[in-house]
Write a structure and sequence with these properties.
The chain is of the alpha/beta class and about 325 residues long. The chain has helices spanning about 15-25, 45-55, 60-70, 75-80, 95-105, 110-120, 175-180, 190-200, 205-210, 235-245, 260-270, 280-285, 305-325; strands spanning about 10-15, 30-35, 125-130, 135-140, 145, 160-165, 185, 215-220, 250-255, 290-295, 295-300, 300-305. The protein starts with 8 loop residues before the first strand and ends with a helix. Required for morphogenesis under gluconeogenic growth conditions.
Length: about 325
């Protein structure tokens, strides 16, 4: 991608559905986007390819590539197609297989992502947080250890901490360089323990974010996640991150203050999920400036309004740039 020095440089860090939703909105604005994506997934097609080929899991990378792509809807459907039949093929996603094939052709996971980025004409850059084969583990309150990103929410126990094996895996160098050059760094939304923290636990990642002169923004989830953040408030999310990687990571937190309609609240409550309460005073005690708005977008599921969030991100980052320029 050709760099445009006039556009704010925004680094988005996360994984899962939350990061993809954000990127679909942000790519519509005049910004330079770099996505740094977790590689701790071990379930489904990604987990099978990871075990069979000893490669980083491609699933979250695939979703981010599609979210940032400027391509025909049919090509997106093909890239996201999941095979229903076939011995050894059923359950695999075509996009995952394409990433795996490109890695074998190029000999390198990051190069494979770059080549597919060109094929899909993506609006930005995508890097894995690390190229190492990392496993996410969780220590529960009762002292038990649960292995695997896909297994942690299923354990039915309160999480004390998560950690990576091997400890402190080496970061992807271009991802670190993007953080150093960023005007804005956005973390979230996404599963706190299984999408956000696996990125921040990569060696040097949190320290580079903390040292950066960029404006650092945390986008808090709208709903709690059963098995990870049951009964969590917004400040609980930030406190868990700080407990894992140290304080003073974020300048701002974007919070939803709109209550979902009753039929959606009941649907989520049946899955033991509730709205994340925006406890602004506690957030301020953590040294983070809370910004609240109606960030809700819903049909059958609750999602963030990516367009409105993107406008907030640009307003915050441009304000910080004007401060540095003395305007």
């Amino acid at each position: 991608m050709k760099r445009n020095k006039q556009y704010p440089r925004i680094v988005c860090i996360g994984g899962g559905t939350g990061l993809s939703v954000l990127l679909r909105g942000l790519k519509k604005f005049p910004v330079e986007i770099t996505a740094i994506v977790t590689v701790a997934d071990d379930g489904g097609s990604s987990g099978r390819l990871r075990n069979d080929l000893q490669m980083p899991p491609p699933g979250d990378i695939r979703n981010v590539l599609i979210a940032m792509a400027d391509t025909e809807p049919l090509l997106e459907k093909v890239f996201q197609h999941r095979f229903q039949n076939g011995n050894g093929l059923a359950g695999h996603n075509l996009g995952n297989l394409m990433i795996a094939a490109m890695q074998e052709i190029t000999g390198d996971f990051t190069t494979a992502i770059k080549e597919l980025s060109r094929v899909l004409a993506i609006n930005g850059r995508v890097f894995p947080a690390s190229e190492q084969d990392v496993v996410l583990l969780a220590e529960m309150i009762d002292g038990s250890i649960v292995k695997g990103e896909s297994q942690i929410p299923k354990a039915g126990k309160k999480i004390r901490r998560v950690f990576l094996h091997p400890p402190s895996p080496k970061p992807q160098e271009e991802a670190i360089e993007a953080i150093r050059e960023a005007d804005g760094i956005v973390v979230g939304p996404g599963s706190l323990y299984t999408s956000i923290l696996p990125n921040l636990l990569v060696k040097g990642m949190a320290d580079e974010i903390r040292k950066s002169n960029a404006c650092k923004i945390y986008i808090c989830n709208i709903m709690t996640q059963h098995g990870e953040t049951d009964r969590f408030s917004a400040s609980d999310h930030i406190r868990v991150i700080y407990d894992h990687v140290g304080p003073d990571l974020f300048d701002f937190t974007l919070l939803n203050n709109e209550v979902p309609p009753s039929f959606l609240k009941e649907r989520y409550a049946s899955s033991q999920q509730n709205m994340v309460l925006p406890d602004v005073e506690e957030i301020m005690r953590l040294g983070c400036h809370p910004l609240m708005d109606n960030l809700l977008l819903y049909r059958s599921l609750v999602r963030h309004d990516a367009y409105r969030i993107s406008k907030h991100i640009l307003r915050i980052v441009r304000g910080r740039l004007r401060e540095f320029q003395g305007v």
